[in-house]
Amino acid sequence: MFSSFGEAGCIFNKIFIFESDFYLLSISSRPVMKLRAFSATSLEDLPDLQSVPQHRRLTKNPLIERLRMAVPHDFIAISGLDVDDFRFGQRLCFDTNLPPAFIETYIIEELGRIDPFRDAALKTEGTIIESEVYTRSAPPQRLAYLASSFGIHNRTLFPITRNGVTYGAITLTRTEPFETDEIAFMEMVADTIHAAVTKPLRQRFVAQHMKLTPGELICLTNASFGLTSDEIAKTTGYQPDTVNSYIKSAIKKLGAENRSHAIAEAIRRRLIR
User: Fold this and answer.
1) Residue 69 C-alpha from the chain's centroid
2) Which positions ≥6 away from 256 have C-beta within 8 Å?
């Protein structure tokens, strides 16, 4: 699909300026209905991460369109967040352009319980290729019929991991199998794509979900610049004891061992820059 990684890289370099543009899906026993535009600004109307619809319609996203130039695909699903209860496999949380009727049927009929591809994704590290999974375990007839009816073929999943734990994934589908160089390219860029698409949710809710306060984030941000507690106190107007208290609390909430570890975790989770 592209002559070299250099060519693909030139295409991908154009991806990064994007504005999230989502639609929500209502998954229930009733027909799926498109609700309202879902963007970074409309997130302000939602009180917490639990209130965000679990299945969100991804459409008109410049990032994904640029990706499609590098790796042509029919459908894409971007799932999971690096927070408790929202990691891949723990709870449904994804943005996708998969047909709403397929998603609705897959969920209502609980096909995930008998889907060999999903089972492999939860148990296996590394990229999961549907055709390889099906050579070991054939798909149930109902799932095969639905996939064929909706044109969902050759699912290929790229895990997003931290410290050996998969917390997210990007899944692509296409009528023709993905080529080796396309898979290798996706393995290089999947983390960046996942971070960009989930950025509005992370910025709005992750710190809140982890119960990090503005004061803790401010102190961590200043500490990431190499400032001491006294210097952070002068910069923020907090008392040194308050600064130390905020940082100590942030260390605990981030599950870190010390200040440096907490800063690294906050940066990795993109809570601070």
Assistant:
1) 21
2) 250, 262, 264, 265
Q: Check residue 37 and report its DSSP letter.
A: E
DSSP E strands, the chain: 22-25, 34-38, 55-58, 75-79, 94-96, 128-129, 156-162, 165-173
Between 83-87, 241-245, 248-252, the lowest mean confidence (pLDDT) is in: 83-87
Please list the alpha-helical segments (H only) found in 4-43: 5-12
Per-residue pLDDT averaged across 79-83, rounded? 82
Per residue in 217-248, pLDDT (tens digit) is 899 999 999 999 999 999 999 999 999 999 99
DSSP 204: I
With CA atoms as reference, report the closest residue to 146 among 114, 123, 192. 114
Cβ atoms within 10 Å of 107's Cβ, excluding its own: 15
Alpha-carbon gap, residue 188 to 219, rounded angstroms = 33
Report residue 199 as tokens: 């950025």
- At residue 211, the pLDDT reads 74
Which is nearest to 165 in space by CA: 125, 112, 193, 128?
A: 125
Q: Which of 214, 212, 224, 213 is nearest to 255 (CA)?
A: 212
Residues 6+ apart with CB under 8 A from 180: none
